[in-house]
Automatic annotation (TrEMBL):
Name of the protein: alpha-1,2-Mannosidase
Record: residues binding Ca(2+): T562
Annotated stretches, region: Disordered: 575-603
Organism of provenance: Cannabis sativa (Hemp)
Cysteines joined through disulfide linkages: C375-C442
Gene3D superfamilies according to UniProt: 1.50.10.10
């Protein structure tokens, strides 16, 4: 009976009448119910939000995975997801000025020297300095394309199709014929940009005529060959030796040609040169400018980053970049880093202005002389700095770029440079106008002369900074090339200001009614009578790109040869001998390369 009462007592709490008679307990129950409901609702809401977040994250992961797969086959997928920084109106205006300069140079060539190698603006005539290969025309193809000058590009293409003939009894420089329009580099670049088979066929034709130059006991090529008859040899003034830059500056073009055609013979020839050079490569990575093509050894001669040495070191870095930095091209990077340690041993500074320069070396003696040609080095150092660890990368970049030296510390000998320095000061702050390292030195090759154009080379003297040696200017591009790389890599607009000042000096001193000319003397301003083809191929192209968005010929997709002809980067996975180009059946197989359409990559 007691058990029954206990059970009834518990059940009464389930009877609504019980709570109606006890209002306080009813209120407590109601509050408890409401709190529990809120708790359950809040947890459900949190779960739903969490599920939504997880779904979004899953979508993002899937998108990134898809993007990664696309990158493996075509890096342009990344670019499609990015927007350019809006064009600076000043950059647009300056870019158009450079484009106008290109049109003036090109139209003058068309009017007075069409189909010939180079224009002589003063006499309004053409001259065949390179055997009548249309040097200026082919050298200008990619510049016209990049600048969006469609009509001019098509006119040039028509001449290449109908008139460019390599069967000439002409003693051609293997080096010049490869890097310039003359011819392999210019034609390959035009092909990579336009995907027009005509240019590849022409590049293959001229390359086949050059190949016998590599048939030497060591594989180090002769530097001269007759385009119609073969018979390679070296110039008499070298004493029968091959030139370092000439022998080590065909790798980009011939590797690219093997990649585009599927024929490994071009790559095999030029890579064998590096194999031979590596056998004699010194600890400091610095080679004299003469090589014996018979024994594969060096000959006693100057070590320099100027004429006849420069582009060998440039190509060690750029072949590594061209191969997309894979293990197949690792040896090039290793050799380049070795050479950069050697370069550091050639660095000296002037007094009182602390201009940094690269000496030349003869035996154990240093010569305090630097060519304007060596002004490619700041850009090369900046381009190569990305392959180092953080500390070493910053060290190499610092050697290349400007440093914040106070303007007032400049020598009074540079008083005439202050106006241009003030332009830089206004554009980039009070302490960026001057710099004590290589780019600043090269810029002052220009700013230290009355015409604001650089001489061919400079000598350095204790207590007197520098003086012009050979005083002509032939419209060379090396300094603006380095400014282009430094601006692309650092984003420092100081380099754009320096480039603009150099362009204005060309406009003031070199522009004439019928084109552009060099100067016989940068001090007096007396003009010569030659518009070099590289002025259109390099100088104006680099100036145009200096004021263009970084998406125009992006450096992660293209590598420039030493004549500023951009070639498409293609990842290499071979054994340095071109074996990845051979199909399993022994035939030839052209690698798949996705090239941009004609309108892509332009502002």
């Amino acid at each position: 009976m007691a058990r029954t009462r206990s059970s009834s007592s518990k059940l009464r709490y389930c009877n609504p009448a019980y709570y109606l008679k006890r209002p306080k307990r009813l209120a407590f129950l109601f509050i408890a119910f409401v709190c529990l409901s809120f708790l359950v609702w809040d947890r459900q809401t949190l779960v739903r939000e969490h599920e939504v977040e997880l779904a979004k994250l899953s979508e993002d992961v899937a998108h990134l995975q898809n993007l990664l797969e696309e990158i493996k086959t075509d890096g342009s997928a990344v670019r499609k997801t990015l927007k350019d920084v809006p064009d600076d109106p000043i950059d647009v205006q300056r870019r158009e000025k450079v484009k106008d300069a290109m049109l003036h140079a090109w139209n003058s060539y068309v009017k007075y020297a069409w189909g010939q190698d180079e224009l002589q603006p003063q006499s309004k005539s053409g001259v065949n300095s390179f055997g009548g290969l249309g040097a200026t025309l082919v050298d200008s193809l990619d510049t016209l394309y990049i600048m969006g000058l469609h009509e001019q590009f098509e006119k040039a293409r028509e001449w290449v199709a109908n008139s460019l003939d390599f069967n000439k009894n002409y003693e051609a420089s293997v080096f010049e014929t490869t890097i310039r329009s003359r011819v392999v580099g210019g034609l390959l670049s035009a092909y990579d940009l336009s995907n027009d088979q005509l240019f590849l066929d022409k590049a293959k034709d001229i390359a086949d005529r050059l190949l016998p130059a590599w048939d030497t006991p060591s594989g180090i090529p002769y530097n001269i060959i007759n385009l119609a008859q073969g018979r390679p040899h070296n110039p008499g003034w070298t004493g029968g030796e091959s030139i370092l830059a000439d022998s080590g500056t065909e790798q980009l073009e011939f590797i690219a040609l093997s990649q585009r055609t599927g024929d490994p013979k071009y790559q095999e020839k030029v890579e064998n040169v590096i194999t031979q050079i590596k056998k004699i490569f010194p600890d400091d990575g610095l080679l004299p400018i003469y090589l014996d093509p018979h024994r594969g050894t060096t000959a006693y001669s100057t070590i320099t980053f100027g004429a006849m040495g420069d582009s060998f070191y440039e190509y060690l870095l750029k072949v590594w970049i061209q191969g997309n930095k894979t293990p197949a091209v690792k040896r090039y990077r290793e050799m380049w880093e070795q050479s950069m340690k050697g370069l550091s041993s050639l660095i000296r500074r002037t007094t009182p202005s602390s201009f940094t320069y690269i000496c030349e070396k003869n035996g154990e003696s240093l010569n305090d002389k630097m060519d304007e040609l060596a002004c490619f080095a700041p850009g090369m150092l900046a381009l190569g700095s990305t392959g180092y660890g953080p500390e070493e990368s910053q060290k190499m970049l610092s050697l290349a770029e400007e440093k914040g030296l106070d303007l007032n510390s400049l020598s009074s000998d540079l008083e005439n440079d202050k106006k241009s320095c003030e332009v830089v000061r206004r554009g980039a702050g009070d302490h960026v106008a001057a710099q004590d390292l290589l780019a600043w030195t090269c810029y002052n090759f220009y700013q230290s002369t009355p015409t604001k154009l650089a001489g061919e080379n400079y000598f350095f003297h204790a207590g007197q900074d520098m003086s012009v040696g050979t005083s002509w200017n032939i419209l060379r591009p090396e300094t603006v090339e380095s400014l282009f790389y430094l601006w692309r890599i650092t984003g420092n607009k100081t380099y754009q200001e320096w480039g603009w000042n150099i362009f204005q000096a060309f406009e003031k001193n070199s522009r004439v009614e019928s084109g552009y000319v060099g100067l016989k003397d940068v001090n007096s301003g007396v003009k010569d009578n030659m518009m070099q083809s590289f002025f259109l191929a390099e100088t104006l192209k680099y100036l145009y790109l200096l004021f263009s968005p970084s998406s125009v010929i992006p450096l992660d997709q293209w590598v420039f040869n030493t004549e500023a002809h951009p070639l498409k980067i293609v990842a290499r996975h071979d054994d340095n001998s071109g074996n990845d180009l051979k199909s399993s059946t022994g035939g030839q197989q052209r690698p798949k390369i996705k090239l941009r359409s004609r309108k892509e990559g332009r502002p």
